[in-house]
Automatic annotation (TrEMBL):
This is Fe2OG dioxygenase domain-containing protein. It comes from Digitaria exilis. InterPro entries: DIOX_N (IPR026992), IPNS-like_FE2OG_OXY (IPR044861), IPNS-like_sf (IPR027443), Oxoglu/Fe-dep_dioxygenase_dom (IPR005123), Plant_2OG-oxidoreductases (IPR050295). It comes from the Eukaryota. PANTHER family: OXOGLUTARATE/IRON-DEPENDENT DIOXYGENASE (PTHR47991). GO terms for molecular function: metal ion binding; oxidoreductase activity. Residues 367-539 form the Fe2OG dioxygenase domain. It holds the Pfam family DIOX_N. Keywords: Iron, Metal-binding, Oxidoreductase. Belongs to the iron/ascorbate-dependent oxidoreductase family.
Length: 596
């Protein structure tokens, strides 16, 4: 064992110098610890092998003289994604110094998302952002304050909108004949044919998402297998479907829609009382994402947390007018959540799992639900903008109550990239699969792949995983996504956590190619305003969702998949705003790396 105060600090290969003197400065408050910063072979290999989207990473270990409080962290940096660092339990009693080497600027507000929340609780964590070529300590880049307050860190950059908020409704009502530049989409993102221009004939001939009658399923009829297969097929082929006879009373649906229509008809000054901030998004909003200079959408919204009880938006966020808005929305929320649970059961069964499997995996009774009432005013130039840019929904499922008169939702159809306008059926809900289903299926399927492949003696791939000599493209994606520098020893495989997606290695698993969240967007029109209510059914916010430890252990290698909580993912999405499927793609290590 090395003596305290010494540090073995090789140049890590990207031009970053760590001088021994500087490290002693770092350690001056902790003479009983030593820092070893070393380049990991795996990371270097990975850096070479993977795409240029991966930036630098560093391996850091911190040891106490008795060798008991050893911390090892490898940090692959992809600035555009939220990461959790696998952190072995003993570190919770030790000091942490984490060095993040980046080769592009990363806003400091991003840093909290890099780390497992437990770090803030247990560690006085010091961070440094270093660009290649810069010296670590002498340039005083080390942040000397402990990172103990992630929420405050977050608040720094999520406190206010980056530009003064303009209500789209107010703009529309001002009678302008052309839309301000900040709403004009680049040509590639514009709707080709605004729905206002579409003739009735075109509407009828639209290919449409499947419509599924849940009546018999809810009544326990004999047609359950066929209904289950219809839902599964719709999820496979479209990621979207409509449901009728879904068990939610049509009167309640109409009351909820009218309550929110009523809210948006209130005077602007009254609505402004509920103006939201990017911190929680609760309240009256007019943009998604905090990117300064972003092209905005032609729509306003009202966002609320409905469930679980503990996360419910406090009374101050609820509109006082219309007087029944809160009561109706709450009842509506409860009913739609029940419907989500039914769909989850159907999806579980369609995968050969026990019917409560998905519900349990996403947090059971503690699953979350949020409501966004979307309001799209009339638009003088609907061909230049969108009511809601292309995006996929971050949660598990979305249940949308669309406007009964005005179309606007478009769904991206499979490989063709064609946008298909949804024709809402009366009293139906539009249901779509969210990113969590895709993410979990993604992790699950690759855990399975690992399980199988680990038995093949093979080339060593970054992080020490054994794959067959030619990893499949999907396996490569998985490695880029989840190539965590877990310590190699089994004992560092994270402890089991509640909410595992797969509960046994032999369980049938979701497949990446089966259920995918699908991109959708909203087009606006010159003649009519449009309203929709989107209920997002989400996993419990803090449950790390990852494959079962048994599965990882069975692979005879280190854990491949870091847990990521929904809260972490959602924050990431909230900061970016709608950006097609780039968020989820970023998690696969495939996207370009925009600021988070
Ligand atoms: O308004 C719509 O039709 C779709 C809304 C939507 O996609 C959303 O709120 O995420
Ligand atoms: Fe959506």
């Amino acid at each position: 064992m090395r003596s305290p105060h010494t540090a073995k600090v090789p140049n890590h290969g990207h031009g970053v110098e760590f001088s021994g003197r500087s490290l002693e400065t770092v350690l001056s408050g902790r003479p009983d610890h030593q820092v070893i910063i070393s380049e990991s072979r795996e990371l270097r290999t990975r850096h070479t092998a993977a795409s240029s989207q991966l930036s630098s990473a560093i391996y850091l270990s911190l040891q106490s003289p008795d060798d008991r409080t050893r911390v090892v962290a490898g940090i692959p940096m992809i600035p555009s994604r939220a990461l959790s660092i696998p952190w072995s339990p003993p570190c919770k009693r030790s000091i942490g110094i984490v060095v993040v080497v980046v080769d592009r600027p990363v806003p400091s507000c991003f840093i909290p998302h890099l780390f497992d929340r437990s770090l803030y609780i247990h560690l006085p964590l010091y961070l440094s952002l270093v660009r290649p070529g810069q010296s670590l300590i002498s340039s005083s880049l080390l942040l000397r304050r402990p990172y103990t307050e992630p929420s405050a860190q977050m608040a720094d950059c999520m406190q206010e909108w980056p530009e003064p908020v303009v209500r789209v409704q107010a703009l529309a009502q001002s009678g302008l004949s052309s839309i301000p530049r900040c709403y004009v989409k680049p040509p590639s993102d514009r709707p080709m044919a605004p729905p206002a221009a579409a003739s009735a004939a075109e509407l009828v001939s639209d290919v449409s998402i499947p419509v599924i009658d849940l009546g018999e399923l809810l009544a326990g009829g004999s047609n359950v297998v066929a209904i289950t297969e219809a839902v599964a097929a719709a999820c496979r082929e479209w990621g979207f479907f409509q449901v009728v006879n879904h068990g939610v009373r049509p009167e309640l649906m109409r009351a909820a829609r009218e309550a929110w229509r009523g809210f948006f008809r209130r005077p602007l000054a009254e609505k402004q009382r509920y103006a939201n901030s990017p911190r929680t998004y609760e309240g009256y909003g007019s943009r998604l994402g905090v990117q300064k200079g972003a092209v905005l959408d032609w729509g306003d919204y009202f966002f609320l947390h409905l469930a679980p009880e503990a996360a419910k938006s406090p009374a101050k966020f609820w509109p006082a007018n219309p007087g029944d808005c809160k009561e109706v929305s709450e009842e509506y929320g409860r009913e739609v959540v029940r419907l989500c649970e039914v769909v989850m059961r159907v999806l579980s069964v369609s995968l050969g799992l026990d019917e409560e499997h998905l519900h349990r995996a996403f947090g059971g009774a503690a699953c979350g639900a949020t409501l966004r009432a979307n309001y799209y005013p009339r638009c003088p130039q609907p061909d230049l903008t969108l009511g809601l840019s292309a995006h996929s929904d971050p949660g598990v499922l979305t249940v949308l109550l669309a406007d009964e008169h005005v179309r606007g939702l478009q769904v991206r159809r499979g490989g063709s990239g064609q946008w298909v306008t949804v024709q809402p059926v009366r009293d139906a809900f539009i249901v779509n699969v969210g990113d969590q289903i895709q993410l979990d299926s993604y992790r699950a399927v690759h855990a399975r792949a690992l399980h199988v492949r680990a038995r093949t003696p093979a080339a060593r791939w970054p992080n020490g995983y054994c794959y067959s000599r030619r990893p499949t493209p999907a396996a490569l994606d998985a490695m880029r996504t989840h190539a965590w520098a877990y310590p190699k020893s089994r004992k560092h495989v994270p402890a089991p956590v509640h909410g595992q997606f797969i509960d046994r290695p032999s369980a049938p698993i979701l497949s990446n190619s089966i259920y995918k969240s699908v991109e959708h967007r909203v087009v606006v029109n010159a003649k009519e305003e449009r309203i929709s209510l989107a209920l997002f059914y989400n996993p419990k916010g803090d449950v790390p969702i990852s494959p079962a430890p048994e599965l990882v252990a069975a692979a005879d290698g280190p854990a491949l998949y870091p847990p990521m909580t929904f809260d972490e993912y959602r924050l990431f999405v909230r900061k970016k705003g709608a950006m097609g499927k780039a968020q989820i793609e970023a998690l696969k290590g495939q996207a370009s790396s925009p600021e988070n």
